[in-house]
TrEMBL record, chain A:
Pfam family, one: CcmB
Name this protein carries in UniProt: Heme exporter protein B
Membrane spanning residue stretches: 39-57, 63-82, 107-128, 148-170, 177-199, 211-233
Record keywords, A-Z: Cell inner membrane, Cell membrane, Cytochrome c-type biogenesis, Membrane, Transmembrane, Transmembrane helix, Transport
Organism: Microbulbifer flavimaris
PANTHER family: CYTOCHROME C BIOGENESIS B-RELATED, HEME EXPORTER PROTEIN B
Protein family membership: Belongs to the CcmB/CycW/HelB family.
Membrane topology reported for the UniProt record: Multi-pass membrane protein
Keyword Cell membrane attached: yes
Primary location class: membrane
Subcellular location, record wording: Cell inner membrane
Function: Required for the export of heme to the periplasm for the biogenesis of c-type cytochromes.
Superkingdom field: Bacteria
UniProt keyword annotation of Heme present: no
UniProtKB/TrEMBL annotation, chain B:
Species whose genome carries this gene: Microbulbifer flavimaris
The keyword Transport appears for this protein: yes
Pfam families, per database record: Cytochrom_C_asm (PF01578)
Record-annotated Cytochrome c assembly protein domain positions: 14-185
Name this protein carries in UniProt: Heme exporter protein C
Keyword Cell inner membrane: yes
Chief place of localization: membrane
UniProt family annotation: Belongs to the CcmC/CycZ/HelC family.
Compartments where located: Cell inner membrane; Membrane
UniProtKB/TrEMBL annotation, chain C:
Location in or out of the cell: Cell inner membrane
Organism domain of life: Bacteria
Membrane-spanning ranges: 20-37
Described function: Required for the export of heme to the periplasm for the biogenesis of c-type cytochromes.
PANTHER family, alphabetized: HEME EXPORTER PROTEIN D
Pfam families to which the protein is assigned, alphabetical: CcmD
Protein family according to the UniProt entry: Belongs to the CcmD/CycX/HelD family.
Lineage of the species this protein comes from: Bacteria, Pseudomonadati, Pseudomonadota, Gammaproteobacteria, Cellvibrionales
Membrane association type: Single-pass membrane protein
Subcellular location, principal: membrane
UniProt protein name: Heme exporter protein D
Keywords: Cell inner membrane, Cell membrane, Cytochrome c-type biogenesis, Membrane, Transmembrane, Transmembrane helix, Transport
InterPro entries membership: Haem_export_protD_CcmD, Heme_exporter_D
The keyword Cell inner membrane belongs to this UniProt entry's keyword annotation: yes
Amino acid sequence: MSSLEQPVLDYTPRARNVAGFVALLRSELLLALRRSADIANPLLFFVTVLALLPLGVGPEPDLLARLAPGMIWVVALLATLLSQESLFRGDFEDGSLEQLALAPQPLYFAVLAKVSVHWLVTGLPLALLSPLLGMMLNLPSGGYLSLFLSLLLGTASLSLIGAVGAALTVGLRRAGLLLALIVMPLYVPVLIFGTGAVQAAVDGYAYGPQLAILAALLAGGTALAPLAAAGAIRISLDN
Amino acid sequence: MAWQWFHRLGSPRWFYQKTSAWMPWLALASLLLIGAGSIWGLGFAPEDAKQGNSYRIIYIHVPAAFLALAGYYIMAISGAIGLIWKMKLSFVVMRAAAPIGAVLTFIALFTGAVWGKPTWGTYWVWDARITSMLILLFLYIGVIALSRAFSREQVADKACALLALVGTVNIPIIYKSVDWWFTLHQPATIKFTEKSSIDPSMFYPLLTMVIGFYCLYAWTLIAHTREKILQREWRTSWVQQLMGGESATESKAG
Amino acid sequence: MQFQFDSLAAFLHMDGHGTFVWAAYGVTFLTLTALALQPRLQRRRLKRELERQQRIEARRRSVETRRTREAEPA
């Protein structure tokens, strides 16, 4: 143990992990908030692509209302995916990822902190913005709350799953398309239950079960995905 | 003592030499079984009352679909063995299993589409099983694409094993969710034949084909694994001896 | 158990489903054969590559021996 970690040594191992997690979360969040362009880009992508949809299929309100849940979800999925390539990239290139891997704290918490920050600056704003897009696409009034809640839960799962892909491809030069290729099939359940919740709400049914399943996927993902991503980071660092 | 065979199995050279004797027998068994099963299924099995002769595609569609899914588990399990016990051979098997599984998934999709045309009147339906198969194909393609992206084989091995394991955890969830999605969207116009008990006169040729496909899968997997072993171990003396028998003796004589 | 079709033509036609059945079987067996032959092609390529390497090695060795022979008288 180096002298730098003196204050932390007083804690039990578990408390030390939590303290490390919180510290990393704060510094990552601070870094992310300083690069405001990185936060804005996925949101602008989200809005731009959905603005193209009526230009592609025509401005009929009924047709747009039918497409709205699926399209908003698919574009939110793509926006999350596109922002994920750089999740570990900077840390990999400047060597701090290696430092994290060598740290006494499990890599699991470091990955969880980074993914949480990614969700806070991507998934959360997307969910907050979604009612506006729903309005533009003529989403029936029953669907707004379910759209917001399903995106809130679902994008967190997407961030977690995408982190595994980002960790696997972090050492590769052109990872963008490859990342999409390996992660997209794993997104399927989240997409199905996310759009399912919105569709059920629009049709006037209860959407609680779908949200419960999304929450279950998130719980499972929180437990397992950072483990897999941590393993993937160690593999990528070997490269 | 019980672990001795396990460690031996980890040696690519031992595997290569041991399997040399099995290969012709596996090839013979798969040729005989698939040949007999095809002729039986195509010519001798009775016609289906509802679907007519188009149902005869089942004799390749079902075995291919079985092995497409089983192949993913075989790939993931060998990847896991490689990660846990750091066994070289296991990674080679995993890498060999990926393209074979992708081809079998493609065959299952293709024969399903061709079967769908006379049965449902269309080549492609977003049916739960077809959609799951398509996603399985994407999972295979992901593993293959990842394996080609790395310049170092050892890193590619571990990365692919991890991705295959993540896929394995997800497959049941994907299948269940696609199933649920399909019941939600099932169009009323398309009637699917309900599950019915299959007559022995149709079942035995199918069983023959399934066993034949398993033999063929084993043969193909071992053949691809052997080839990859040679490619990876080409610097070793036993591969050089095996490959360049003539040139080696030549240089000794000269 | 008996052959279900009256003639070879009927066997190929299969009441109009022949195209589908034979296309499915044809494509399946073609792809499986290609998959089975792939290792053989790879081995041929590897063999060629090894022979090339050995030739390069032999040439380098002969050049080296010539050089040492030329160097000896001096």
